[in-house]
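Input/output pair, single chain:
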Amino acid sequence: MIRLRAEWVVPVSGAPIADGTVVVDGRHIVAVGPSGAIADVYEGVPERDLGAVALTPGFVDAHCHVEWSLSPHAGPCTDGFAAWLERILRRGSAMQPNDFLVSARSGVASALCAGTTLILDAGPTGAGAPAADELGLRAHVHLEAFGRVSDEEAAAQVAQFAPRVCALDADRVRGGVSPHAPYTVDPALWRALADHPDLRQRPWMTHVAESEQERAAIAGDGGPLTAFFDTRGSRPGIWPGTGSVIARLAANGALRPGLVAAHCVVLDDGDRELLRAHGVGVAHCPVSNADLGVGTHDLAATRREGVAVGFGSDSPATAGRYDVRAIAQASADDDPNARLWLATMGGAQVAGRSHELGTLAPGRLADLVAIAVAPGTRDPVAALMDPAAPVVMTMVDGETVVRDGGLVHGDMAAIRAEAATVVQRIGA
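Output:
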């Protein structure tokens, strides 16, 4: 057991506490309050005085791709979503299996040092799982599935896919499922994934309603995304029904409680109601959306409708840094209190873990971050949400994994050197 004392404790679920203390026992928080009152009750418990910091819940990155952390940003996309997708696939084909682990390790290290304690990751290899386990990050790692197949082919594909998902599980890591997007996964494969007994209750994530090109492709109306598939001798997934992407997914039984819907830029009237009714959360990725030029997610409308929403970084390929505060700063909401809530409790709700994470309160898991603030700071929320404010400590499950801005379980210099070698070889 230990007492963590800070100039400010910002619980999120309550008002900031000047000269506050959080008591951690093993993996859990057991007390939060003013330092004087806490000392009276926990007098014999060792104290670590963190000094001029704001102590707050760890940040949740509701949508990222750490396997693509070595993908360079090529500048704002000016030639359309399909053209950008083709470039990403070309880069991926140059990577060797171990390169994805090197990339994932680099992304996880960056996230931890930015104060993130939970990532909702997606990728084709699942390399985010061993990287997160190695460095101490909590993670849902969603293995991406792709395919436009018959029912029989779908069942066979999922039978091989499910053990790969289960193998991702580790102490702080939960393997999950990501039917990549409606245009890369048709209803037959989506149903087979949902029907598999080993996959039903796992975390789920997908890219959805990310561009107008997606709407046309899955309706069978052609367009640039369909033309892209034609060049690869393939076809997009076709979803029966009418209306928006969300409406077609709902009509085909693809929306499910706990599904994380990344982006959700192109939404029609009624789509948010469908998302809320089906228990789907949204990962809002303002930097990625702007970089790809696909449009702007109406964050205020999503919150008014009562849909769970958090911030997602996506990846450096779309200018996303694995820094939730930097992503929050790019959102339409200029209220630091609202941004903090979305970066912590909002992300925890999207992950289905708001009963464990997202606030500093007794019984919650001890995932927290200490951010340096100027002595005498009067507005600790604004101070800690400034991306320029250094992360001093990151704690996951009561274990310090970042101390004085450096990794505890890894060598950042070595991680960067290994990453630079891969970048040089693949020519990214």
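The CA atoms of residues 13 and 359 lie 6 Å apart. Residues 97-113 form the longest helix (17 residues).
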